[in-house]
Amino acid sequence: MRVTRGIVIDETELVERFIHASGPGGQNVNKVATAVELRFDLGHSHALSDSVKARLVALAGKRLSTEGILVITAQRFRSQARNRTDARERLAGLIRAAAEPPKLRRATRPTRASRERRLEDKRRTGQRKRQRGSTLKD
Question: Distances in Å between the alpha carbon of 80 and those of 66, 76, 85, 92, 113?
Fold first, then answer.
């Protein structure tokens, strides 16, 4: 499965299991296992670098099991094939997001004008509060 130009996941690394879905589907929902549970073992994957794996762990959240297996459940559609495609697209989207390195934050300093505006605002607020205090004492 091609995710990006540099990342290709081998089909053997993906484990699919078909389960009964909840929701609409009429009698079909009770007879056919249309939902897909896609499992991807992050720890044993050779397709991803360590930095991408670390970012993927952070992005995955509750979809990541304690064993390091990423589990995606797709049951949005009534057909098994569309749910299978949906699960694979969601996995690819997660990996694409993790493959993008985070933008480095450059430390910047406030401009002189913005510092002066802030201080002037503080002076005005303090003055307003002092005026309130003097009216209450009278």
Answer: 28, 10, 9, 18, 61
**Cβ proximity of 16 and 36 under 8 Å:** yes
Q: What ranges do the domains of the chain cover? A: 11-99
pTM for this model (two decimals): 0.70
Residue pLDDT, tens place only, 101-112: 889 999 999 999
Q: Is the pLDDT of residue 135 over 90?
A: no
Beta strands in 1-138 (DSSP E): 14-19, 35-41, 69-74
> Using an 8 Å Cβ cutoff, are 98 and 55 in contact?
yes
Please tell me whether residue 16 adopts helix, strand or coil conformation: strand
Which of 37, 45, 38, 41 lies closest to 8, judged by CA? Answer: 45
In which order are the strands placed within the sheet that holds 35-41? 14-19, 35-41, 69-74
pLDDT at residue 138 tops 70? no
Given 3.30.160.20, 3.30.540.10, 3.40.50.2000, 3.40.50.2300, which CATH number is that of 11-99?
Answer: 3.30.160.20
Task: Compute the distance between CA of residue 112 and CA of residue 85 in angstroms, rounded to an integer.
Answer: 54
